[in-house]
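# step 3/5: fold
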Amino acid sequence: MKNIIAKTLLVVAFQVAILSSSMAQSTGGSAGSSYLLYGLLAVAVLVFFFILVQLSDNLIAIEAKKAGISEDGLNLGLIPGAREIVGSKKVGYVGAGTPVIGLKKGFDILLEGEAAKTCDEGVVVNTFAVQPPNFRGVLPIPKLMVEEGAEVKAGDVLFFDKNQPDVKYVAPVSGEIAEIRRGEKRAITEVIILADKAMKYRDMPAPDLAQADRATLRSFLMESGAWPLINQRPYDVVPDASKDPRNIFVSTFDTAPLAPDLNFVVAGQEEAFQKGLDVLAKMTDGNVYLGLDARGAQAPAAAFTQASGVVKKWFSGKHPVGNVGVQIHHTFPIVNDDVVWTVHVQTVITIGRLFLEGRFCADRIVAVTGAEVREPRYVKTYLGANIGELLKDGLSGDAVRIISGDVLSGARKEVKDFLNAQDDQVTVVREGDYYEMFGWLIPGSPRPSLSRTYPNFVFPDARFKADTNTHGEQRAFVVTGQYEDVLPMDIYPQQLMKSILVNDVERMEALGIKELSEEDIAICEFVCTSKQPLQQILREGLDEMLAQG
């Protein structure tokens, strides 16, 4: 709408100039000069008016973000947006008068191997691991509270970080400490537990939620092991116990390739999910924001739409619309020294069960996905499950890449490795260890791509069998404008990446690095012609910002 108004003003100014010139020529003499002068003055007034309104509009929007009064996701400038005039296209299950934040930018990557809506509870996994590197901000060598051969219950303390000794990292299952693996410089990489057949839990009587103050709840969450599963932004680190979050955000849908359907995951856990939201609501003076999915023909699960004590925000669009970082940006952006929390749906359930049952329940519904999986499905297991046991006899080939998470932002794993703490998805795709003769010069097999070199746009619902081949090597980092086409955030990602490469901390902050996480920039890496490792670059920048304080 702003662009339309700008173009209209410029067209009017141009027409006034032409009319004045014509009148000057037809009239001649001093009268013609007067017409020309008045016409030029009118053009100058219109241009000045346009610049003044545009500048005022931008300044008001910036100040609104800084003041935190733009939390309704609507434009607060002088010029209304098109969505505010004609309204967003909404589906029937969104209530009348409820705004839907529709994002035009993005790209959905449709792959073969989506998990069927069945949950296999018979998968036997015997070994689990808690991996300190999964928790950013933790020292490489935390203080161990157990040794190999020790028996533990689910919820028993395994280690703590010397920087935050009150935050405990606990066992997801009961059993024997089978091994403590170390990496470079004796850093602890995995604490491996051989699980019992019958689960035993450490008793954790929860405080009365109605009577307990925030300090009591904070201490209980830190002692119980739930605290490290919460994420603090900026920087994506374990929350600082000395800082209360301005707001807390929960995204109830995931738009990454082959991501699990959280409506399916939350089924049967409605009470625990609501209880978890109630706990989180007491941890902030702001709001708990629930991001809801307005893309489908059917309404999201009742656990989400009927949740109480939260502020619901509806979103529609393409990936990465389901990313919590994108939802934060369009709801209540991170500015200055803001601290916010993000919490995964299954972590909310874990917190809820902690207060309902008085024990740390690290159950996880994990989507086993990908074209190289014989029967893509959901499985019930626990946090940190061994990936080889999850996939036992389930792969269709040997030349495969196993990923903890999705294909855009997940981590490469081997069968001996373990599911990362924040992941609820395992993806298996074909290893792309081959060369293409003449590359893009000749037609190739169909593949997920934003480029119109391939006729994907003709078949928008087609699913592809992807592999890990990047179809080219890293090249010069040139300006293409590709990132801005797929990242629905008011950020210039290419300029940000280059400021990180030259270690310009002030420019990094000014360009919005605090609003981004690796999963947000992953779609830019996918479309990058220069084949730049954008997620790695971003993490280096975030680590530098964190080190600078």
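# step 4/5: annotate
Confidence is low (pLDDT under 50) at residues 69-74, 82-87.
# step 5/5: archive (pending)
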